[in-house]
Amino acid sequence: MFGGGFFGGPGGFGGPGFGGPSGFGGPGGCGGHGVGGHGWGHGFGGHGWGHGGKPPLKRAAFVTAALLLDGPADAAQVVQRVSDATDGAITPPHEIAELAIGVLAGRGVVTVDNGVATLTELGQNLLAWRGVSSETAHAFLARAGQFGDVFKIRRELFEIAGLARTITWTGTDEQKQQLAAARTKVLDALREAKKTLHRTLGED
Q1: What is the pTM for the complete model shown?
Q2: For the chain, what is the radius of gyration of the CA atoms?
Q3: How many other β-carbons are positioned within 10 Å of the β-carbon of residue 184?
Q4: CA separation for the pair 198, 136 (Å, rounded)
Q5: SS3 for 159?
């Protein structure tokens, strides 16, 4: 399990602790294609916890396990802990938290009683082996919370792109006409937003 398994090695969550290569602070971490990519429902803000080279649900499960270091919790409490730790910037969908708990239970990392997940000794040992503590978990989430606006923008763009793809493949002629009109509005808004942001950067 340690070599290529759930928490570490080629099939795991990344380098040592939260900050190693492809770990939470590395290329797949927050700010990259991590918590704000296709994670927690297009980001802790999407479907899973990012697509930084690791399966999104695995990433969500890992962070859920880390949050359980604060004590047993059900899915709603996991969501609340994420929201609290990020000062409200990130609120994962309840169903993703439930799926994450299910993944952890299936791997023996937690036990579940009436929906409440509790870390097993194995789970505690795996987190310790990864160098993860409650403090490092909260530090990571606080850092991720700084990217809240980025995650929200990314989520909306992914949703728009998904809708456009569906209409392109399966839409009626009328729906495709509406898509063309929406595309013009969206692209105009994006171009204007980019100009504004470029001007803002130029003022520094």
Answers
A1: 0.61
A2: 19
A3: 10
A4: 34
A5: helix
Name the CATH topology of 54-147: Arc Repressor Mutant, subunit A (1.10.10)
CA dihedral (95, 99, 105, 108) positive or negative: negative
Residue 53, sorted as left (phi over 0), alpha (psi -120 to 50) or beta, turns out to be: left
CB 13 within 8 A of CB 129: no
Listed in sequence order, the residues at least 6 apart from 75 whose beta carbon sits closer than 8 Å to its beta carbon are 94, 95, 97, 98, 101, 115
* Cβ-proximal residues to 197 (8 Å cutoff; 6+ apart), any chain: none
Give the residue among 52, 69, 73, 82 at the shortest CA–CA distance from 142: 82
Q: Which residues pair with 111 in a beta bridge?
A: 118
The pLDDT of residue 130: 92
CA-wise closest residue to 129 among 190, 62, 203: 62
Q: Minimal CA–CA distance to 65: which of 97, 26, 31, 87?
A: 97
In angstroms, rounded to a whole number, what is the distance separating the alpha carbons of residues 67 and 135? 10
**pLDDT at residue 204, as a whole number:** 60
Check: CB of residue 119 under 8 Å from CB of residue 68. Answer: yes
Parallel, antiparallel, or unpaired for β 116-119 and 110-113? antiparallel
- Choose between 2 and 185: higher pLDDT: 185
Residues 14-42 pLDDT 10s: 333 333 333 343 333 443 334 444 444 33
CA distance linking residue 7 with residue 176, whole number of Å: 45
Position 46 confidence tier, pLDDT thresholds 50, 70, 90: very low
